[in-house]
Structure formats: C-alpha cells, structure tokens
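Note to self: keep these together.
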Amino acid sequence: MSNKQKRFFLTEEEIPTQWYNIQADMPNKPLPPLNPKTKQPMAAEDLYPIFAKELCHQELNTTDSWIDIPEEVRDMYKYYRSTPLVRAYGLEKALGTPAHIYFKNESVSPVGSHKLNSALPQAYYCKKEGVTNVTTETGAGQWGCALSYAAKVFGLEAAVYQVKISYEQKPYRRSIMQSYGAQVTASPSMSTRAGKDVLTKDPNNQGSLGTAISEAVELAMTTPNCKYVLGSVLNHVALHQTIIGLEAEKQMEKAGEYPDIVIGCFGGGSNFGGISFPFMRHNIKDGKKTRFIAAEPASCPKLTHGVFQYDFGDLSGLTPLLPMYTLGHNFMPANIHAGGLRYHGAGMIISQLLKDGYMEAADVKQTETFKAGLLFSKCEGIIPAPESNHAIAVAIREALKCKETGEEKVILFNLSGHGLIDMAAYDQYLSGSLQDYEVTDEEVTKNIHELEKII
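Structure:
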C-alpha cells in the first residue's frame, strides 16, 4: 500500500465555481409545490414571505443547469474545501472485498459536517437582501451548528429550534450553536402556537423535525426582517450541496476511476443529492449505468415504505404542499440517535428521481449502522456521525456482495459528518442497550389514510 495514494485533493483554483442544478436535466421535472389553501402551483414570488428571494428562484429553476457560486461564498468555502476523497484501503482489507471503496470526507468542515455547504450561501443571500434575523430547525444539531456559524460570518442573528430528544441527547451540539451566538430552544416549546398545540395534546412529546419546522416557520413569519432557512429537503439546498459531488468527480479522475455505486445517508436529501446529482447527470445525459442508493433508517423509511403524494413539510401545515415520498407529516419517528434522519418526507427532486427509477433506496436498522460505524472507525480512524453510519452500512453490504461475486466494483459514499459529539450513542451500543425500531406497513397505511383526510 505504501505506493498507493490514499487521499485526493483539489487546489483552490480547481474548486468548482458553479453548483449543478439537476432539475434542468431531468426528463420529468418535479411537480410544483402547491398553495395549501388554493391547491394552485406556487411561483417563486409566493415563497418570498418565508425565504430569501434568490433562494426562491433557485428553488423553482428548471432551466439553468449551472448556477454561479457567489465570490463571497467561494471565499468561505476555501476555509475547508476541497474536502478529501479517500480510498478506504483499511475497510477493503477488513472486508476482504475486491471492491474499491472511496469516501468523500465532509467531516473536516469547521462544524464537522456537510451542512455548511448550504448554510453559507443561504446566510449570504439573506444578508444581501437586508435580512437581519434567520430562524431554522435542527435534529441532531449539525445543521443548527452550520447555520449558527454561517449567520455569525455574515452578521445575522440566528434562532434555532432543536428537536427536544436531540437537545437532551446531544448537549454539546447545543453548546456549539450557543458558542457561535445562536439562541437555541428545545422543540416543541411554549414559545410558538405550533409548539403549544403539540404540548397541549402531549405534554411529554419529545419532538420531531416536522414540529421544529412548524415552530421555526411561525417565528419567521411573525418576526420583522426575519427569514426561514432549511438544511435539507428543498431543491436549493440540494443545489448548494452539489459542491460535494462536483469535487468528487474531479478527484475520481485523479484516482483514475469512476464509481459504479454512489451511496449517501438519507433524511431529507441534502447530502445524498450533493454526492449523487453531479454523477447522475451522466446517467441522464450520457447513458452511464451508475447505481445510486439512499440509505435511510428502518425506523423512518419514507423511500422504502412511504407513499408518493402531496404532503406538508411540517407538522402544523404551515409550509406549501410538497410532492414527496412521505410517511405522513403526523408521523412521529422513534427516538433513534441519527436525529438528522428523523424526517417524515423526502425532497421533491429525490422523490421524482426515485419514482422515475434513476435511484434506489435501502433501509437499515440502528444496530447495524453502529456496527458498521465502529468497523469503519477501527479501519480508517474516523468515528462517523450516526447518520453517516447508514451510508457506511450500505457500502459494506455492497462490498460484501462483490466479495461473493468477485466483481471489482468502485463504491463511493459520502461521509457526511464525524461522530465525536455523539459518543453517548456509541456508549449505548457498546453496552448493548441500543434498540432497533422498525415501521410496519400497517402503521404507514393508517397514517397515510389520516393524511388523505387532511389533504
């Protein structure tokens, strides 16, 4: 191995200057978001009350394949980009597989995850518009940390609603957000009507991303000069995250290889889309046959067990209706440690691509993900975030298939973040007290029936 290159980097001059907008190249465009009252398609202008105007136009842009990255954002990207593409020789050896395994290491950003790739441009566009305050939700806290930092960079005040179970499980992520100057509130809270409604029905409610989104959107809509920003699900977020795959494409060229399989963990679609879309464009336009696998929790399996239909992005129905694979916005996911994946629906682009057969999905039990993460840490020296463990688990599954068949496939996955602030979760796994949760088809059917009555 001594003569084999382990890591592949780009120079600052090689860092991409544009994001890739897959919507422009999709044969079937995503269905439009609908006004929940009129059920009519929404234009970019209809989203202005919630989001910065430039983000609204990026959200619905189905014509431009490439969007310029503002120079101010590129300057901040240079603090940590390019992130390394790494050949996982240690993991390959441990598995005894002929597969070549690579991972894009997004854990090296200042906040420890890929989330900063979109937090910086969203904060920039808000600042450029004259906004003074931003509000958001966060599960495990990686998005909240990224937005808190980005807000400080561009001189904004940030308010973050963190899902209560994660607020309690991950106190140090809360501390990081507060260190950057953000106000952090456990959700559901008594500070919004949406939170009060949830707590009135269930005083011990541990929260969900859907509930936290309701609170954040309500605060944005009732606070002067305040905009809501989101860390996943929406099209413009996936757009910003394509910096990951665009770099990986250049780095794979340096490695002299091209992926047969691309894998990302899946909550709403930000890091999966970020690593996948730049490569997927070659499947769409050039006839490549790369497989794309979204790895989701068995306890929140919207892609593998959900239904494709319009649904709200939040619990209280404050967002537009989005065409998505969903478990129903009333779905309350189990309290798994991968808090960033506890979301009831999938992004509009991902949902359409799955529906059209350009990608696939796999669900993974919690204990399998931690077993995979520990093996990876022993082989590669990085303790992954619980979310990232889902991608590692599916990569291991595919590598072991190669061991059986003898195929020398090239597998690429996104290491979306490190788990150094998630050690309480690893403690539970190592002590044997970590539980598995699965969702039955009967539960999904019941929840979808309730959703259909509402919609």
